[in-house]
Amino acid sequence: MRKNVLDPACPSRVVLNRIGDKWTLLIVIALSDGVHRFSELRERVGEVTPKVLTQTLRGLERDGLVDRTVYAVVPPKVEYRLTDLGRSLLEPIAAVKDWAERNADAMLEARERADAEA
Amino acid sequence: MRKNVLDPACPSRVVLNRIGDKWTLLIVIALSDGVHRFSELRERVGEVTPKVLTQTLRGLERDGLVDRTVYAVVPPKVEYRLTDLGRSLLEPIAAVKDWAERNADAMLEARERADAEA
DNA sequence: CGGTATCCACTGAGATACTG
DNA sequence: CAGTATCTCAGTGGATACCG
Q1: What is the pLDDT of residues B34-52, one digit of tens each?
Q2: Strand C: positions under 7 A of a protein C-beta atom
C-alpha cells in the first residue's frame, strides 16, 4: 500500500514533524553550501540561541541528516555537514524556500487585506 | 537584494512559519485534489480536532491560500478549495511529501540506530 | 453540518549564566 | 570554541462539551 502523509500512523508523518519545527529547515538550508562550524551556523541562522541550535543539530544527527565531526584540538573545533540523506532533502526544501522567497509578499498582502476588512 | 530565509527579518520567514505548523501542510495536501467540505477534511486528515482544523483553515484563508464558500442552506454546507496562490504552493509541497514518503523509513532506521548505541 | 467555548497540558523556545 | 545547566514562559495544540 502506498504511503500517505494524511494517515497519522504513517512514518512519513515523522518527517513532517521534523521539518515542521521552527529551525530545522533553516539549518539544513544554512548547511546547503557545505561544511560549517557551530558558531558559523549561529551567525548564519539569524537569532537562534545556542541551546536551540544544539537541540536541532542533535535531532538532525539522530535522524541521519547531519554529520558531526569533533576535532580533538584546543580550542575545540566541530564541523557539521549534511549526509547523503540530508543532501537529498535539500532538493524539496529548496523548492519550498524558493516558493517562500517568491510568494512571501503576496501572502503578506493577502493577510493585510484580510485583516483590514475585519 | 535577494531574499534570504536565514534572515529573521525577511518576509519569507513568515511563510516558513505558516508551513511549519503541525497541520497546514497536511491540510493543503488534503485539498490538493479539489474541493472539500469541513467534515471531509476532518476524515481525510487523521486525528485533527475540529478546533484545530478551523484554526488552520482560518489561517490559510487569511493568507490567501484557501477559499471558503458558505452556502445558505439547511443543513449548512461549506466548501474549501485552494486559491491560485495555494495551488502554486502545491508543487514545492508535493516535493516534500514525496521525499517524506520515500525516505521516512531511512530516517527512522537512522534514528533507531542512533538510539541503540546510546 | 460546521463549527464555538472553555479549559488544560505540554513542549518548544528564550534568557542567562556557566564550563571543559 | 562549543557547548551545558537552569529556569521560565507563551503559544500551540488537545479534550470535551455545547450551539445555530
Answers
A1: 999 999 999 999 889 999 9
A2: 1-6, 12-17, 20
From the centroid of its chain, how far is CA B43?
15
Task: Give me the DSSP letters along B3-47.
Answer: --TTSTTSTHHHHHHHHTSTTHHHHHHHTTTS-EEHHHHHHHSTT
Asked if A16 lies within 8 A of B25 by C-beta distance, the reply is yes
Which tens digits make up the pLDDT trace of A96-112?
A: 999 999 999 999 999 99
Angle at alpha carbon of residue A105, lines to A100 and A107, rounded to 5°:
75
Per-residue DSSP letter, A23? T
Residue of chain A minimizing CA distance to B65: A107
Whether residue B75 has a cis bond before it, omega within 30° of 0: yes
- pTM for this one? 0.91
Neighbours of B17 (CB within 10 A): 12
Domains present along chain A, CATH in parentheses: 12-117 (1.10.10.10)
Q: Report the C-alpha gap between B95 and A116 in whole angstroms.
A: 34
Euclidean distance between CA atoms B15 and A47, whole angstroms: 17
